[in-house]
């Protein structure tokens, strides 16, 4: 009897995981998306994604539509979001105080966010992996292999010192695609900071940063820690950064660039990282490896083409109007 009871409970847990509760209007199809009207609906979406954390299939290919502005959102949509979130030009105003990670969405499974505006403040303090401390933050998402398009972040992001830092105005880690996005929020942290993405191995196209980027220890972490107006670190195999504009100031220690702080290769053959049709108007300052477009090219061939720097570039060593250090 006891064994049957345990099996009954276990089967219900699996059923709940496969069919987490979400009661929003609509059926989740592209033409009748689930409707998100208020904070309660958004919380219900977050709860549903979290309930599906082990199956990670419930929201796959489902559509969600933000119907009105939502204020005072203090939570993240924790878990991998596989669906498609349509912001419809509406605002989510956040007041997030997080430990370790702070962003609205995790798109690591290939989900998407489109036409969303994020306002407010995101404060993140260091968490722990058990091996080292870390902190990561973004206005929209950790993106993984997903897509963020036509989004604006006006969120102010502050991250306390930690062993590993990744911060982006739109996404903190991009393996997918970010397109037609704008960051207007000021960002303060330690290193690996970008106005659009903290680290990029995917595609970033047609994006603008106007926020001021301040890094207190960029370059200290050797080949990982750049700070840039668009991308902090372009990782090995970066698909490309094109048609982007930086208007904000970029201030760090080492590996500071108006568009990209550090282009990092890890050895072995890899396609060149293309940085094309980009322009920097912002003030760029650092100590070493400081460039109007790219701060430091480390062990990686970078194809910088049709790029223009108009901003003032200041530093002490390895400084260039286009590329600081090769």
Task: Please sum up the structure shown.
With 326 residues, the protein is mainly beta. Helices cover 9% and strands 44% of the residues. It contains two helices and 42 strands.
What this model shows, in words?
This protein is mainly β. The strands form 5 sheets. The chain has a 15-stranded parallel β-sheet that branches. A 10-stranded parallel β-sheet has the order 1-2-4-8-13-18-23-28-33-38, covered by helices on one side. Strands 6, 10, 11, 16, 21, 26, 31, 36 and 41 form a 9-stranded mixed β-sheet that branches. Helix 2 links the parallel strand 1 and strand 2 (63-66). The chain has one domain: 3 Solenoid (Pectate Lyase C-like), CATH 2.160.20.
Q: Low-confidence runs (pLDDT<50, min 5 residues)?
A: 1-19
Most strands sheet: 15 strands, parallel
CATH class: Mainly Beta
| Proportion in β-strands | 35-45%
How far is the N terminus from the C terminus?
71 Å
Helix content: under 10%
Query: Radius of gyration in whole Å, from Cα?
Result: 20 Å
CATH architecture: 3 Solenoid
Which overall shape is indicated by the principal axes computed on the Cα atoms?
elongated
Number of helices: 2
The secondary-structure class comes to mainly beta
Secondary structure: number of strands: 42
**CATH third-level topology:** Pectate Lyase C-like
The domain tally reads 1
């Amino acid at each position: 009897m006891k064994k049957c009871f345990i099996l009954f409970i276990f089967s219900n847990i699996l059923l709940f995981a496969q069919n987490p509760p979400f009661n929003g209007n609509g059926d989740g199809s592209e033409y009748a998306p689930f409707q998100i009207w208020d904070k309660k609906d958004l919380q219900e979406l977050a709860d549903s994604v979290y309930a599906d954390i082990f199956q990670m299939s419930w929201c796959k290919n489902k559509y969600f539509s933000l119907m009105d502005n939502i204020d005072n959102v203090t939570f993240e949509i924790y878990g991998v979001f596989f669906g498609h979130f349509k912001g419809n030009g509406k605002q989510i105003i956040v007041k997030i105080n997080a430990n370790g990670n702070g962003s609205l969405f995790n798109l690591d499974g290939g989900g998407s966010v489109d036409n969303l505006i994020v306002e407010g403040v995101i404060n993140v303090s260091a968490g722990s992996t058990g091996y080292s401390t870390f902190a990561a933050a973004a206005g929209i998402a950790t993106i993984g292999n997903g897509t963020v398009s036509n989004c604006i972040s006006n969120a102010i992001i502050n991250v306390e010192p930690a062993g590993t830092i990744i911060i982006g105005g739109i996404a903190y880690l991009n393996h997918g695609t970010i397109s037609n996005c704008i960051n207007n929020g000021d960002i303060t942290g330690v290193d690996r900071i970008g106005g659009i993405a903290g680290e990029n191995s995917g595609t970033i196209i047609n994006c603008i940063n106007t926020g001021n980027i301040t890094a207190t220890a960029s370059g200290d972490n050797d080949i990982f820690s750049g700070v840039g107006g668009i991308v902090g670190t372009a990782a090995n195999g970066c698909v490309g950064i094109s048609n982007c504009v930086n208007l904000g100031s970029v201030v760090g220690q080492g590996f500071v660039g108006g568009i990209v702080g550090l282009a990092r290769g890890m050895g072995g053959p890899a396609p060149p990282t293309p940085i094309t049709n980009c322009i920097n108007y912002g003030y760029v300052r650092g100590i070493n490896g400081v460039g109007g477009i790219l701060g430091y090219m480390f062990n990686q061939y970078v194809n910088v083409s049709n790029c223009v720097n108009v901003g003032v570039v200041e530093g002490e060593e390895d400084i260039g109007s286009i590329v600081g250090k090769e």
